[in-house]
TrEMBL record:
A GO MF term: ATP hydrolysis activity
Pfam family, one: ABC_tran
Keywords: ATP-binding, Nucleotide-binding, Transport
ABC transporter domain sequence ranges: 2-224
Protein name: ABC transporter ATP-binding protein
Length: 230
């Protein structure tokens, strides 16, 4: 379980996170939603230990973030974070040195799914293919918690469907995915829990399946209801 407890983060005049609290359960796909600039990416970066929060605490399986728990968390950002002079294979070898749970089998199966060869230099790839490589690297780390920040950016709709299929294929019962995305319809039937944030605050939390069954509403329907105050 990931516990976000009363976390705040300010960037100069911008209050990115404002006393925010929620939990991420094991074995579930959780989605953090909201309009642009409300703090979604900041939350993921804080969980990954990439930024220092101003107050509150984040616990991963009961432990504060430290170097000992980094193998539990994989972060796929929405910006390029690769070594452009590396080939894909060299990137895999580099990651293998640092992540003890790295799976070559998973990496190469996903690479084949995306029709990519490991001898390609990352600097020569299109934006969409770079996005694919980032996703492969993120999942091949075999982390307990995989954080995906706008993972569908640059990926066409057909490959999105394949990626969604492989997401569920490789998700073990004790693994979790935390995702931010504007492509809500793509993940509608996969998501378990939804957290809606606005201006750095949690404004609503709900279970997507229960909302569909009990209220007959999709995630988008519920978002409209929450933002309109209905």
């Amino acid at each position: 379980m990931i516990e976000i407890k009363n976390v705040s983060k300010r960037y100069k005049k911008l209050q990115a996170l404002d006393d925010i609290s929620f939990t991420i359960e094991e074995g579930k796909i959780s989605c953090i939603l909201g309009v642009n600039g409300v703090g979604k990416s900041t939350i993921l970066k804080a969980i990954a230990g990439l930024i220092k929060i101003d107050s509150g605490e984040i616990l991963i399986d009961g432990q504060k973030i430290n170097h000992k728990i980094y193998n539990k968390v994989s972060f796929v950002p929405d910006v390029d974070n690769h070594f452009s002079h590396f080939t894909i294979k060299e990137s895999f070898e580099f990651m293998k040195e640092f992540y003890k749970n790295w799976s070559d089998e998973k990496a190469y199966e996903m690479l084949e799914m995306f029709n990519l060869k490991d001898n390609l230099h990352i600097s020569t790839l299109s934006k969409g293919n770079i996005a694919r490589v980032k996703i492969v690297i993120g999942f091949a780390q075999n982390a307990k918690y995989t954080l995906l920040d706008e993972p569908f950016s640059g990926i066409d709709i057909f490959k999105r469907e394949e990626f969604i299929g492989i997401m569920t294929k490789y998700l073990n019962e004790d693994q979790s995915i935390i995702i931010t995305t504007h492509e809500i319809s793509e993940i509608e039937m996969l998501v378990d829990d939804v957290v809606i944030i606005d201006n750095g605050k949690v404004i609503f939390k709900f279970n997507a399946e229960k909302t569909r069954e009990v209220e007959g509403k999709s995630i988008v329907d519920k978002m409209r209801e929450v933002y309109r105050g209905e």
